[in-house]
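Re: the multi-chain job from yesterday

Posting the exact lines I submitted so nobody has to dig through the queue logs.
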Amino acid sequence: MARLISLVEDASPLLREVSAGLVEHAGHAQIVGITGAPGVGKSTSTSAVVKGLRRAGRRVGVLAVDPSSPFSGGALLGDRVRMQEHAMDPGVYIRSMATRGHLGGLAWSSPQAIRVLDAAGCDVVLVETVGVGQSEVDVAGLADTTLVLLAPGMGDGIQVAKAGILEVGDVYVINKADRDGAAHVARDLRAMLALATHKDGDWRPPIVKTVASKGDGIDDVVAAIDQHREWMAGSGELRRRRLRRARDEIEAIAVTALRDRFGSLSGHADLDSLAGAVVGGGTDPYRAADTLLDTL
Amino acid sequence: MARLISLVEDASPLLREVSAGLVEHAGHAQIVGITGAPGVGKSTSTSAVVKGLRRAGRRVGVLAVDPSSPFSGGALLGDRVRMQEHAMDPGVYIRSMATRGHLGGLAWSSPQAIRVLDAAGCDVVLVETVGVGQSEVDVAGLADTTLVLLAPGMGDGIQVAKAGILEVGDVYVINKADRDGAAHVARDLRAMLALATHKDGDWRPPIVKTVASKGDGIDDVVAAIDQHREWMAGSGELRRRRLRRARDEIEAIAVTALRDRFGSLSGHADLDSLAGAVVGGGTDPYRAADTLLDTL
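And the result, structure tokens for all chains:
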């Protein structure tokens, strides 16, 4: 598994060879995305959910995707430390993955890394991503079930709304629920969810309160994950999401292949000289893009 | 300006017509990106910096880009309320822009919207983006000068490091500097910046403390923005960044055009049936992408 995921990280040409074999064995796992702003306790919650899933007898894969550090190219030690308690459990596989800074890196590499964990026999693959914004939407696109984590004291209602979380959550988790303000966050969230357009017919995202550091409420999270899977399988939503994901993945691979071709046009010279012409005012980006596409 | 930016938002085919004219008049403005996690006071800071720039006699454009709400397709009222104090100033133009949810939407539309403000004669274009993660890297890619905002009480040191901010800031602003913990944040940041690899030769990102709600420290922010522009012009970095931006923009336009062609292949049928084959295990995404590219 480690070697296969390294192939994905390195964007190895060998992926093409193993891809067919992976597809054949994949499709069994429930892909669960976990997202939320820094400070809500994402890693602690992920670790607690892993424990809960293990208690329920599931084999668990964890993919910690870090789209926010494209330059450093790696995840920080903290996550690994938090995950260490699972190190001796053969039913848990944990892997951090960086996305190497290219736009759409997450879109390209994550589905393939998830497929490795899926094909290897994980019942649940948890995909943990950092932060809010674009990355969150990505994780929603990657997952069968998206958990959105909140915590008291992370800013006012407008900021919660701003973060775009109302559209992506299948299950909302209010962590640090023993702190002041947890009831307030739950009330705000409930009110805003009532106003929001539901993306999926009759599924009403539950709000679960946890104190992940103590394990409180984690079994409720696991139950909510199970309920969502059942609902999805019954409603046809599971297939719809997987089709959409396959579309996105095919497109991402095709676009990456095209970008590579752009880059290799006479040793980058073409794109560079087109960029120079745009900066100099000699052409506009549309005409430059036309030239680029004509050259292909 | 409003109509031109609407063309960008709507991805209108007319953009192609006006693009050459815009390029001709653009290139004068300093593009300043403002980013930071929810809760640091980004909108308040942006508004205060607008005031500071106006005191210095600059014409200012503000583009509030909201990549985190691709589903709702619009920015929230809060920003507009905060910006209202500039409503009667003819030297300030403020516009919110949504990115309509397509991956790379920010990459595609923001440079064009920025160019509208630039060509219209703004001396400084402030680009405010929500959140951390991928979006932050994007704003760094869009801007000549990137301001990263922090505030006390937003999580521990590892989370600051996680957010990927150490690589993108040209100027660091610690807002809410009158609160407990501001000195601590400054110390942590200084220590981490000392460890980080500097992306640009001899520029050492300054750390400026502000209380944006009172206007404290804002003139120092404006001075830091000016210094960075001077350094960039002298060192050649300005041209390097603009060339890189033009490359990215040309590529984004070309990729968008290709995506449109993917989508229009026999009324989406091809991509859908390829996705169905991948979900069913009949093919793998690489072979599906090959088929897609061959069909083009």
